[in-house]
Amino acid sequence: MRPLLPIALIVALWVSAAGAEQDPRTSVELSFQHADGQSISGDVYFSLGDAAPSVGLSVGFDQVELSGDRGTAIYASFAVPVSGATLHIGRPRSAFDTGAHGGHLFAVPAGISSLVATAARNRTLDFGLRLDRVGDTFSYGASWHRITGGSGDVMAVSGQYLSVDLDAVDQVVVFGGAESSGSEDYFRLGSEVTTGAATAGVDLTYQPEQRSLSRSQIYVDYALNDRITLGLAGLRDEAPDADPINRLGMSAAFTTQSGSYVQGGVAGAPDEDALFDLAIGFRF
Fold it and tell me: How much is the pTM?
């Protein structure tokens, strides 16, 4: 794929993003997951100026260990504010990985990896661009990455729409994303409904080449107050040449007024290793 098309798409989204508010705060996020394999991820964003918005630096990593094999992915990009959006230039994460995908804790497991993340661990990820736009009702992202070794380019998009003009419920969120190299694809689609303190949602990840749902999740969260949320989830993971795994999970999250958070969860299945998820984020 020639870079002209993805660059034109990102420029078009940039123009349409005018007027959206971006969050200029410095942030640090770390997450750990353990099941059949384990993964550790981290992201740090630094604002490089005193004014808001200003140019920033984003650095991230993934370390994934599966069946005794370990791979590490490194990401680094400059974040440039452009007309209400943020353009990441360098080696950013895929929009498929960073898009708004609902608020529940349990993430896609270590064995199910985006095309860009796999390329980064295999050291074939070259240059990339990602545009993020965060709005009150509609948020989206788009990215393009060049992959070396004859794999071509990878395009990704993600989006989230929030509707609050409803009589029966307080709000409905629809989110999704897609990533493609032309020969391999990933899709994600989900929705959340909130009424009062309760939120119910479904989150599906699909890979056509596998001909099955890589991860399907149904969950219910209940906010005890503005800071503490408890959740229950049913998860089904499917991987090539393996039997599906059904798990029942519980989670809890604590959020501060500044937006910092701590989340933890565990999901179990008969005759299978328990899945543990832990995420910590700081905003300042």
Answer: 0.81
Question: Hey, what are 65's tokens?
Answer: 């260990």
Of 276, 14, 282, residue with least CA distance to 142: 14
Place of tokens 């689609």: 189
Determine the Cα angle at 275 with ends 271 and 276, to 5°: 145
For CA atoms 164, 203, 155, 82, give the dihedral sign: positive
Strand partners, 39: 33, 64
What is the C-alpha separation between 26 and 3, in angstroms, rounded? 31
Sign of the C-alpha dihedral computed for residues 89, 92, 95 and 98 taken in this order: negative
Report the C-alpha gap between 159 and 155 in whole angstroms: 14
Quote the CA–CA distance of 131 and 13 in Å, as a whole number. 8
Q: What is the pLDDT of residue 19?
A: 39
Distance CA 199, CA 179 (A): 27
Check if the beta carbon of residue 21 is closer than 8 Å to that of residue 134. yes
* CA neighbor of 125 nearest in space, from 169, 82, 156, 83: 156
CA distances from 265 to 106, 133, 139, 154, 251 (A): 7, 29, 27, 32, 4
Residues in the chain with pLDDT values less than 70: 1-25, 35-37, 49-53, 66-69, 100-112, 150-151, 209-213, 240
Q: How far apart are CA 139 and CA 37, in angstroms?
A: 32
Decide if 203 contacts 216 (C-beta within 8 A): yes
Preceding peptide of 53 cis, ω within 30°: yes
Q: How many angstroms separate the Cα of 34 from the Cα of each of 66, 166, 231?
A: 10, 39, 19
Question: 231-235 long-range CB contacts below 8 Å, 24 or more apart?
Answer: 231/104, 231/105, 231/265, 233/104, 233/105, 233/106, 233/265, 233/267, 235/106, 235/267, 235/275
